[in-house]
Amino acid sequence: MPEPAPLAAPLAGLRVALFSGNYNYVRDGANQALNRLVGFLLRQGADVRTYSPVVENPAFEATGPMVNVPSVPIPGRSEYRFPLALSSAARADLAAFEPRVVHVASPDIVGHRAVSWARDRGVPVLASVHTRFETYPRYYNMAFMEPVIEAGLRRFYNRCDALVAPSESMVRVLKDQGMNDDVSLWTRGVDRTIFHPDKRDPAWRRSLGIADEEVVVGFLGRLVMEKGLDIFAATMKALRARGIAHRVLVIGEGPARGWFEDNLSGGIFVGHQSGADLGRAVASMDVLFNPSITETFGNVTLEVMACGLPVVAAAATGSESLVSDGVSGRLVEPGDVAGFADAIESYLANPALARAHGDAGAARAGEFGWDRINQAVADAYLRLIAQKT
Asked: Record's Gene3D superfamilies (predicted)?
């Protein structure tokens, strides 16, 4: 009797053109989420082609085929590149590929051109929102630019057929800002083989000069001012002024490292960590302090929760959807240095409270599996295609 024919891949025939301003040349939470999404789509039988700046020495190997778009370094932030145009070569490749859906991940020039290309051909467009771009100017003494940037984002996102955002709080913000009426959830996952309480390593802590009985306040993320480095430093200064014993562990790298080192007395900087080393470093903290308001989700918050540690965060998009205030951590009004210091002090002074809130966070993190999460994006693609036919 002949063997039954294999089942067709669930997404066979789906062709996705993904446009990203940074797919792999600098490692951050947004591009890692995009690469995971592409890997999932390819495993499900879809064809995906990513249009993004290509550099000689990217931060990590790209998932799936890439097509280069012209770009230049961003002044003052040369590690990032600004896509300049959808070149004739890229347009020819796009036409030959014949995508059934276009996915734009950054509201730059090439993103705009991709949306126009798709609209001219009746191809649906899904935009994913990865950061609060409109909040960046306030960290560079240019807060007056926020309304202008928000207006530009509103024009861009309303030209798309639908948006996906990584947290319920960000979905609400986008709808309230009038960015689009069709906004759904594409949250983020966490790898529990890397981020787990068992990854805590007292010997590694000792190698950094941290005694077993010392409590560690951690920072995790790129060292750029928009991550709230000024608030973090001011809060640690407030704890020292109160005589609250603690150590500070900084995991990450970035252009503001020099400023952070100068303004964070006694901080231990371990630089960029990845894979098992990152899991060990995160689990070896005692509490995470995340004062940033620019995240739309907060991958670092979820990773720390998966390690069974409490989180003190700004009550802002992303963290509000992950941290249950008074259950798995504390949410504090953005910029409230005294409030942040109070919340952190409560964990440093009460290990039992820290353990209870850490356990609650670990249970919450168990709900975030990558394949189930990425299926939501595939479902959005298929819905938009159906609406166009």
From this structure: Glycogen Phosphorylase B
